[in-house]
Amino acid sequence: MEQPPRFTEVPDEVAPAFLEAEGLIAQMFERPVLTPEEATITVAGDRYLLIRADSLSVKFAERIRELLGSRLEDDHEHVGVAHEMLYALSQALGTADARAVLDRDGVRELDDPAQRLAVGPSHFAHSGWGRVRIHGESEVAPEDPRQLVLHYEHLHSFEADAYLAAGAAVTRPACVMNAGYSSGWCTEAFGQPLEAVEVTCRALGDESCRFVMAPRGSLAQRVVELGQALGRELTPPPAYVLGERVMDKVAAAEAERDRSLKSLQALFENAPFGAFVLERRGDELVIAGANVAADEILDLPCQAMTGERVRDMFPGIPDTPLDGVAGRILSGEQGRFHDPRLSYKDEQIEGVFEVHAFLFESTRVAVFFRDVTMLARAEEAARAAERLEATATLAGGIAHDFNNLMAGVLGSVSFLRRSRPGWEEADETLNRVALAANQASDLAQQLLSYARGGKYVEEDLAFGELVERVARERRGEGAKVRTRVSSRASVRGDATQLRQLVAALLQNALEAAGPQGEVELRVHEQRVADAEAQRLELPPGPFLVLSVQDDGPGMKEEVLARVFEPYFSTKAAGRGLGLAAAYGVVKNHGGAIELESELGQGTAALAYLPRAGSRRFVPARSSSARRDWVERQGSLEAVGSLALGLAHDFNNLL
After folding, report:
1. Could you tell me the residue range of the domain that residue 400 belongs to?
2. What is each CA distance from 184 to 31, 95, 99, 100, 214, in whole angstroms?
3. Bridge partners of 149?
4. What value does the CA radius of gyration of the chain take, rounded to a whole number of Å?
5. How far, in Å, CA of 344 to CA of 354, rounded?
6. Residue 14 domain flag
7. CATH of the domain at 332
C-alpha cells in the first residue's frame, strides 16, 4: 500500500476505502468559516458548534448529580444517569451526522458498507472526537448481519482526556459519547441498529480506550469473548445500552411516588380517625393540616386551623404527657409516642383519647387520634365489676371457712360442759379453742377488709421479705420449703391480704407435695408483653411475680379448670377456699393468677402483682355502722359476734 490513511488506523484490506473517505472529508473541512459577528462556524455550508470538551463529560456528570442527587438511590447513580443521557444524545448526533454527510455530493454514491463506515472515523477525527483504530478481528460484512462486530479504539478521546486533565476519579469507563456517536453513525452506515460499549478506558488507568460494537442482542456475549481472548475481565455493557434506561426507572419511581402521595392524601383526608400534621417553626409547633375526622371528633373547625400555633388552639396540652412529647419533637428527637388512654381537657374539649405521634421529614409531626371516652368508661366499669366479683368470691369463702372454725369452737365448748374438772382432755380442748379463736380473729380481719370493698391498709410492702417470712413460719410442717427472691421490688397493697395470698398458695403446695416433697417459692420481676398481657387480662408492663412450685402429683385438666371456684376441692376433708381466696386477693390488687400443672410433674402457681408506683389504687369506702363498730372494738368477743352475724348473712345470700 503506497500511503496509509492519515486520520485512522485500519487493517490493510480496508485501507483504500478509508483513504478515499479521508479525501472527501478533508475537502469538507478544508475551509471552515468562523464568523463571530454572526456567531457562526460553517463547514462546507453546514453550521457547526464549538463546545468545550469537559462541558460534555466531567462538568455534565457533576451537574446531573446536583440536579438529581436526592432522587437517586445511591451517590454514584448520577454518573449512570449522566452517561445514559450523553449516550442517547451522542447516538442521535452520530445518526444525524451520518445522514447529512453520507447524503453529500460525492459521498452518496458510496454503496459499500465499508466505504460508508470509513467516512465516519474521518469526520470523527476532523470534528475533534478522537482518532479511530479498527482491529482486524472486526467483521464488517458477515453473511448474517447479526454477526457484525467492530473492535476498535479511540485514540486521543476527548472524554478520557477531559477526565485525566481534571484529575477526576471515575469508577466506570468514561468515553460514553464516543461510544454513542460511533454506534449512531454505524447504525446509519450499515442499515441496522447497533450499540457500542467502551470496555477499557485510559481514565480508569487502562492503556487505551477500547470499544466493542454489535447488535444489541449479541453485544454482551461479544464483550465476554473479547475478555476471554485478552485473558482479563472486561466491563460489561451498562443497562442503558441494553435497553434498560436508568431514567425510565427514575420516571417510574416518580410516577409511583406521585401515586403513593395521592393515596396517602386520600387516606389522610378520609380516615375514620382524626389526624393532624404539625410543623416545627423555630420554637413553635404550628398546625400544617387536619382531616375531616378531626373536625367531627373534636367538633371544632380543625381544618381551618392551618398556620395556627398548637398551644393556642389546644391550651390543655401542658397538662398532658403531650407537652413533653412536643418538647422532644422541637429538639429534633426521633421516635414515636403512643398513649392508649390520654385524658385531655380545656374549655371546649374534655375526654379520653388514644393518641399516636411521630416525627417525619425532620420538621413535621403526624398525630393520629380517636375518642375512646366511652370505651374507657366501659373498661373502668368492667374492672369495677371484676373487683366486686372477686371481693364477693373471697368474702364468701372466708365466711365459709369461718363457719367451719366456729363449729369447732362450739363443739369444744360442748365437750367441756360434759367433762369433769381436772381432766387432761380439758387442757387439750382449751388449746384447740385458743387456736381456733386465733384463726377466727385472722379471718375476721380479712372479712372486714373485703366487706369494705377494697384495701384495708394500703402501703408499700417489700414483697420478697413478706414471702420469706411466711415461708419461715411454715417450715417444719411437712415438705421441704425453699425460697429464691431475685427482686426486692415493692408492691402496694394490704399486708394482711398479701400474707393470706402467700399462705394460701404455700398451704396448697404443701398439701400437694406431701411430707416428703419439696416446695419452692420464687419472687422475680417480669415484663409482661402485649400477647401475654392479653391472655392474662393485664396491661403490658413490669410485674412482680410470685411462683410457688411443688413436686406433687399434678392435676388433671378438668381439675385445673375449676381450682379457683369457691368450695371446689379434691380433698375429702378440704375446705376448698384457699385458691379462691388467693384469686380474690390478686384480682383486688390489679394482678392476675394462673396455675400450670402436668400429671406426675407437680404444679406451679404464678401470681402477677403490679410493682409499687405502676398503678393507682382508689379504695372503696363503706359506711356500715356495724363494721365501724367492730373497728372500734378490739376484743375477740366482738370479732366473734361480727363473724357470726356475717356468716349468717352470707349463708342466707349463698
Report:
1. 383-454+622-654
2. 26, 4, 10, 13, 12
3. 139
4. 46
5. 11
6. no
7. 3.30.450.20
Find the CATH number of the domain harbouring 139. Answer: 3.30.1380.20
Residue 282 class from Cβ within 10 Å (0-12 exposed, 13-18 middle, 19+ buried)?
exposed
Q: In a 3-state reduction of DSSP, which class is residue 199?
A: strand
Q: What is the pLDDT of residue 381?
A: 76
pTM: 0.44
Choosing from 326, 344, 371, the residue where a domain stops is 371
Spatial distance between the Cα atoms of 373 and 351, rounded to a whole number of angstroms: 5
SS (H, E, C) 231-247: CCCCCCCCCCCCCCCHH
| Grid cell for residue 215 | 447488535
CA distance 334 to 361: 11
Q: Is position 510 within any domain?
A: yes
Grid cell digits, residue 153: 479504539
Stronger pLDDT, 354 or 633, i.e. the higher one: 354
| Tens digit of each residue's pLDDT (9 = 90 or more) over 465-497 | 999 988 887 777 678 999 999 888 889 888 888
139 closest CA partner among 201, 25, 236, 226: 226
**Into how many domains does the chain fold?**
4
Q: What's the rounded Cα separation, in Å, for the pair 403 and 129?
A: 111
Domain endpoint, select from 208, 223, 247: 247
**Element holding 490 (H helix, E strand):** strand 490-493
pLDDT digits (tens, 9 = 90+) for 402-412: 666 766 666 66
**pLDDT per residue as tens digits for the range 80-101:** 778 888 899 999 999 999 999 9
Convert the pLDDT of each residue in 186-239 to its tens digit: 999 999 999 999 999 999 999 999 999 999 999 999 999 999 999 998 988 988
Residues 550 and 420 in one domain: no
